[in-house]
Design a protein that fits this description.
This protein is mainly α. It is built from twelve helices and no strands. Helix 1 packs antiparallel against helix 9, helix 2 packs across helix 3 and helix 10 crosses helix 11. The protein is globular.
């Protein structure tokens, strides 16, 4: 294929695959925590890191990672201690991050509106070899956390009080989720852009939830959907000369709509096979003297 003979498209496709895998891997925990828009806020903050990278003539990806991680930690601290004025503090943090990034890029010698647009909405031609190296290292960290600690992260995302009673370090795990989300945002910004990365973290998960109710299957399906739409969107953007980020997000929304349309017929079919009507529910109460076996985390139902 012609597209595979071009070095910049080889880099773009590799970055797209990595982003398609790790964005839903983190997004599944954010959706469970009712923090679907967290990636959008981190993207605003990361813009300051991009501006610092241009101003200091260093790697914008690594500088954005450092600033996004610091911003994610501050967001978690505000969530813990902010109380009633926490939303105002978060709003100032988000808008200040975006404004700071635009200002710093304008002050740098290497910065321009084209540079700004490529980080806000993604750009295939600007993915360099250094960016690919950084993306590979950061993606490896994200996968190590989201897969290696999936049981602990699921427990914290599903019910913090239950996780605390079982002895899990809830605050440390919350911070780890926030840091991992920040790293994911900086990994994905070269493909889908800082303003659209949150959609890639959330929409594939929401689409997978339409036909799945277990954590394991939802995880697998969301990663498959994320990888498919990023690859398809990247190839489409090359041949049709359209923005990659917007194309990828719109494809993810199309998949969500399609799976939503299939959800009701699938539910009716499952009900018929199970011998119940769609609205029927049965409840079995275990005997008081026989403790019920505790299910594994991978088999627990995911919060719709």
């Amino acid at each position: 294929m012609e597209i595979l003979d071009l070095p910049f498209m080889q880099r773009a496709l590799l970055a797209a695959v990595l982003v398609g895998v790790i964005a839903p891997s983190v997004g599944i925990y954010l959706v469970q925590r009712r923090q679907a828009l967290m990636g959008d806020g981190i993207g605003h903050i990361a813009m300051t890191g991009v501006g610092l990278g241009f101003l200091l003539s260093t790697s914008p990806v690594w500088m954005a990672t450092a600033v996004a991680v610091a911003g994610a930690v501050v967001m978690e601290l505000i969530r813990w201690y902010g109380r009633t004025r926490g939303d105002i503090a978060l709003a100032m943090l988000f808008y200040g991050g975006m404004a700071g990034g635009v200002l710093l890029i304008s002050l740098s010698d290497a910065g321009s509106n084209a540079n700004l647009t490529s980080y806000l909405f993604g750009s295939l031609a600007t993915v360099s070899s250094e960016d690919v190296t950084a993306i590979c290292l950061l993606a490896a960290f994200v996968l190590l956390v989201t897969l290696g600690l999936r049981r602990q992260l699921f427990a914290v995302s599903q019910d913090e009080e239950f996780a605390r009673v079982t002895g899990l370090p809830v605050r440390a795990l919350n911070l780890l989720i926030a840091v991992t989300a920040a790293v994911t945002v900086t990994v994905a910004m070269r493909v889908v852009g800082l303003l659209l990365v949150s959609a890639l973290m959330v929409v594939p998960v929401a689409a997978a939830q339409q036909i799945s109710r277990s954590f394991r299957l939802t995880f697998v399906l969301s990663v498959a959907i994320g990888t498919a739409v990023t690859l398809t969107g990247t190839v489409t953007s090359y041949y049709q000369d359209v923005p990659p980020g917007a194309t990828i997000v719109l494809l993810a929304i199309v998949v969500f709509v399609a799976l939503t349309a299939l959800a009701t017929p699938l539910a009716r079919r499952r009900a018929r096979l199970g011998g119940t009507t769609p609205g029927e529910c049965t409840l079995e109460v275990p005997a008081a003297d026989v403790p019920a076996a505790r299910p594994t985390t991978d088999d627990l139902p995911i919060r719709p």
